[in-house]
Amino acid sequence: MKKIAYLDCPSGIAGDMCLGALVDVGVPLEYLQEQLKQLSIEREYHLWAEIVKQHGQKGTKVHVDLTFDESHHHRHLEDIEYIIQHASLPPKVTQWSLKIFHQLAVAEGEVHGIPPEKVHFHEVGATDAIVDIVGTCIGLDWLGVDEVYCSAMPTGGGTVKAAHGRLSVPVPAVLKLWQSRQVPIYSNGIEAELVTPTGAAIATALSVQFGPPPAMNLLKVGLGAGTKVFSIPNLLRLWILGSTSHHSTHKEKITVLETQIDDLNPQAIGYLYDVLFDAGALDVFTQAISMKKSRPGFLLTVICPPEKITLCEAIIFRETTTLGIRRLTQERSFLARDIHFVNTEYGRIRVKVAQKDQEILNIQPEYEDCAAIARKYNLPWRIVHQMALQAWDQSFSNNTV
Fold this sequence. Notes:
Blueprint: E1 2-8, H1 15-25, H2 29-36, E2 45-54, E3 57-66, H3 77-85, H4 91-112, H5 127-143, E4 147-150, E5 153-154, E6 159-162, E7 165-168, H6 172-181, E8 185-186, H7 197-206, E9 207-210, E10 217-225, E11 235-243, E12 249-261, H8 267-278, E13 283-290, E14 296-304, H9 309-319, E15 326-344, E16 347-356, E17 359-365, H10 367-377, H11 381-396
GO molecular function: lyase activity; nickel cation binding
Family: Belongs to the LarC family.
Protein name: Putative nickel insertion protein
C-alpha cells in the first residue's frame, strides 16, 4: 500500500510542530530519541513531549530544550552534513535530511548574497533545528511514508527578532523557499510568524506537490502543537493517507495558452522565455508555422498552473505583438520526482529522479549544475553529465528512492 503524508498548515508550520504531529500520529518518542543519538549531539539538548490543548483540541507539543549556551555555537553547512553523513541513520533519513539542509542553505545564501557552503548558520544551524529536521525525517521513515504533500501556507505578519536583527514576517529565507517551489500562499489574518525557515525547508524540500490533498483513504491524523496561542488552534495537522492502488502517477489541472505571431523581433523570444518561467510557467516552447498570406511565423505555447493564467497572459501581451491568446484547461499525469545530490571530483551536482510504483524510470543530472562545472573547469558538458550519472550509479543504485 502506498502511503502519503499530507501537511495541513492552517496556522503555519515549524520544526517542533512537525515532531509533535509525528509523535501524535504514533511515532514513539523513545524511537526518535534513540535514533537522534546517532548524531552524537545528545549532550546539547533534551527532547520531551506533552499533551496540550489548543481551543479545546488536543495535540502533542514536542520540546527541544538546549542544555548549553548556543550563542557562540553556530555551524556551517559542511558541519551539519558531516554530522548527518557520519550517523548510522536509515538511508532515506540521511537523504531527506541532507536535502532539507541544502535547500535551506541555498535560500539563506540567496538572501545574503553568498554561496550555500559559505552560509554561517544561526537559527537554522542551531541544535534544535538539527533535531527538528532529522527527527522529522526519522518519523516519516518510521511511518513508511512514500511521498509528502503540503497545503497552501499562511503568510502571517508583523516582525520577529532574529540573529540579524528584527525582520519582517515572512522572513526573507521563508520567502525564498516559497519562491523556489511556487508555494501557494494566503493570509489568515494572524499577524505573527506562522512559518519558520525550518518548517518551510521541510515542506519545500520533501513535498512533491502543494495544494489540496490527493484522493486517497485517510488512515490517521496527528496534531502537532505550536507554542503561541492564536485565534484559531495553533496545530499542524499531519494526515496519513493510504491507497491500495499500484499507480503512482499524479494528476493535476494545467492551462495551455497559445498564440500565433508573425511580426515580432526574434530576439525578444529568449527574454520572453525567462520572464514566463520566472512567473511560474511550467513550460514554454515555440514552433515554426506558415500564416496567412504565406508569411512565416511561430506558434507560442505556454503551459502554466490555472492560478497563473492572468499573470502569464499579461506577460505575453506586454512582451509580444499578439492581439489574442487562446486558453485550454487540461489534465496532465506526471511521475513522482525527487532531487538527489551526487559528489564528483569537481563539485556537487543535483540529479532529478522520476519513479513510478517505487521503480526508477528516469535519472537526469541538472543541466545548470553540469554547465556551471563545465565552464569553471573548461570541460565538455557531456563529460560532466556522464560523471554525474556515474556518481549516481555508485552512490544510489542499491538504495530505494
